[in-house]
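dude i think i finally got it to work??
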Amino acid sequence: MIAYTADKRAQLRKGALLELTRLTGASIGAEPERWSAWVAARRPYERTQPWTTRLDFEPDSETLLRRVME
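look at this
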C-alpha cells in the first residue's frame, strides 16, 4: 500500500494515503519513504490482534429463516 502513495494515478494515491492514515492513525503525508520509515520504526506487524467482532448477531439464523419462510 505504501508504494501506491507515489502512484501516478491520483485515485490510487489518494485511496492509499487515506487507508494508511485510517489504519495507523498517523498523518505522515504522501512520501513513501516516510511511511516506510514509520513502519520500520514501529513494526506494527509484530503486534497483530485476532478479529473478535461477532459478525453473526443471530446465533440461530437457520431457525429464524425458517420462521420467516413459513
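The CA atoms of residues 8 and 14 lie 10 Å apart.
im so relieved honestly
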